[in-house]
Each structure stands twice: as C-alpha cells, then as structure tokens.
Design a protein that fits this description.
mainly beta
C-alpha cells in the first residue's frame, strides 16, 4: 500500500494496516508525506501470521510525531 499526502493524520485509535493471515507476504506500507502525525492510540502496523513480514517505509520531509500511546509496529 502506498500513501502520498501533504500531511497524514491518524488519531483516536485508528490504524493503517497491511497484514496476511496465511502464507505469503503481508505487503508493504509506504508513506510519503511532509508531516506524519499519530495521536491518541493511533498506529501503523505490518503483521503476518505465516509467510514473510511486511515492511513499513516512512518518508517525511518535516516530521514524524507520535503522541499519547501511538505506535509503529512491524
């Protein structure tokens, strides 16, 4: 999954996730934004139960900010 935006905001427990519950790759999560802001329990997640793990790639020209229990999990 590729996301391109001027500013990405994920908040209030929301998740952006790539996953796979069987064999094979979970896929990749690539985000290209000037600002990436996660707040109040939000998360970026790449998970797999079988096969290869997913990757998370972040490209932010200004900042990546995680607040109040937010997370990036791969």
């Amino acid at each position: 999954m590729n996301i391109t935006s001027d500013s990405l905001r994920v908040r209030d427990g929301a998740e952006i996730t790539v996953s796979n519950s069987r064999t094979g790759d979970a896929g990749n999560l690539n985000i290209n934004a000037r600002n990436i802001f996660l707040d109040n329990g939000a998360s970026l997640r790449a998970e797999v139960n079988g096969g290869s793990r997913g990757n998370i790639g972040l490209q932010a020209s200004d900042f990546v900010l995680l607040r109040r229990g937010s997370s990036i999990i791969s």
